[in-house]
Design a protein that fits this description.
44% of the residues lie in helices and 14% in strands. Strands 1, 2, 3, 4, 5, 6, 7 and 8 form an eight-stranded mixed β-sheet that branches.
Amino acid sequence: MADTALVLGGGGAVGGAWTAGVLAGLSEAGVDVARAGVVIGTSAGAVLGSRLASGVGPAEMYERQLSGADAVDITVSLGRTARFLWAALGSRRPQRSVERLGRAALAARTGPESEVFDAVGMLLGTVRDWPDRDLRIAAVDARTGGLTVFDADSGPTLLEAVAASCAVPVIWPPVTVAGRRWMDGGSRATTNIALAAGHRRVLAVSPIPKAVGPHPSAGQEAAELAADGVRITVLTPDSAARRAMGRNMVDDSRRPAAARAGHDQAVALAESVAEVWFG
């Protein structure tokens, strides 16, 4: 299925759990997302995308969410939240907003970069090498605000690329890869659907449809691709899933319920997704 792209957006631990449920539900219903021609991942989606492209099945990823195996201890204080919002919302211009967020990330007093690598390494498990599949990981340069896509030919290891994509500004430190400092790939757009340009059929799974600040939503990015003739489906949490997920995207206690909600939602929507995926 060379002309298909699977795009997995960021969403923290809870959003990632919902995404894992979606992938499992679709797979059980006969929509083989693992056969995508390219997998594009951002933040939590980079973790799941790396696993999927490396041969880890959706059912296994789903079970890990239900069992609590992927727990990561992240503390988000009110002060950190306020600094993040102040930086992201301080400008109406997208580029200016992400530049402000990058400066805040570089100045924040957080833990060492090793904490990011350790946490992401735990989430990747035995997946360490770039797969033979076309896998692309989005990250943002904390100094310039520019978006970069890592792949097997970029130079950094898979762990470095995924850690760069997961380094949430102000919460985790920007990570150093190839002599540059990187922060969460969702800082500009949580799902980065625009990166799927050039593919005829696209499935985007977006647990958080819009980044904080003046940035394009998943729906807006999808509309631009659709205007170019791309057949695209964007899955975002429905009302039941939003209730299950809550507001704190790093609340590990919410992950099982979020995963189940994603699974149920995907099963219900599988037929409409298949029309695009196999059309």
